[in-house]
Structure formats: C-alpha cells, structure tokens
Amino acid sequence: MKDTLKPGIKYQCKFTVTDSQTVPAMYPESGEAAARPEVFATGFLVGFLELACVRAIIPHLDWPEEQAVGTFISVTHEAATPVGMEVTANVELIGVEGRKLIFQVEAHDEVDLISRGRHERMIVNKRQFEGRARSKFVQD
Length: 140
Hints:
This protein has one domain (about 10-135): Roll (Thiol Ester Dehydrase, Chain A). It is α+β, with helices and mostly antiparallel strands. It has helices spanning about 40-55, 125-135; strands at about 10-15, 65-75, 85-95, 100-110, 115-125. The protein has a 5-stranded antiparallel sheet. Strand 3 and strand 4 form a beta hairpin. Helix content is about 20%, strand content about 35%. The protein has 2 helices and 5 strands; from the N terminus they run E-H-E-E-E-E-H. The N and C termini lie far apart (about 35 Å).
C-alpha cells in the first residue's frame, strides 16, 4: 500500500439501473424471483457500493497484486429505484487501521437517498489470498 492511502479519499461512481440489476435477476433460478418487484436489488446495491470503494483506492495500492476484499458492510436500503434511473454512489475513506480500511458510503437515485452506511475492506496480496481460498479444496 502506498503512503497516499489516507483518510479523506473520496470517490463518486454512477450507472443506470438495467433489468440485470433488479430483484428478479437475483437468483433467477428460484421460483420466487419472477414474482418479486422489478427494482434495483439490495444485493446489487451492495456490490455497487463495494465497486465505488475499490475504485477509490486503486491508485493508492500496488494494483493488481495488492487488492482489498470486503469484510463488513452495514447499509440501509431506503428507497426503491426503477429500471432506467441513474444511481450515484459517494464513498469516503474515513479510517485506515493497518490493512483495514473503513468507508462511509451512500447512494442516491435521481429522486431519493437510497442507501447509507459503513463498509470495511482488508488489504490483501491477491495471489496469497486466492491460494488460501483454493486450499479449502485440499483434503487430508
């Protein structure tokens, strides 16, 4: 991690909600999915907030060898966003505790505040991290 990785880093990310980010698109193999509302899904909202945090810190890491994985998220989902509406995420790095990064996050659509909360990421060496994950397949 570079010495520029300090609290105060801010990033804004925007995109337009498509059918592929709606509630029915989450686990479409389930019978319940098709009957659910066609609005921006909470699972995709969380992924969008994580993406904004990653983009905020890439210039401050030895990317792509050094990355940050999500370890904690606590966010609201306060308003529904229909397909075709733009969503904006605003994130700020508010704490650096060793390899742990703490972000304040929020998202808006064109009308409402749709989410706010906190997200934490841990800086990892990508190769080592993937190796540890693959080792779960090793049997005695």
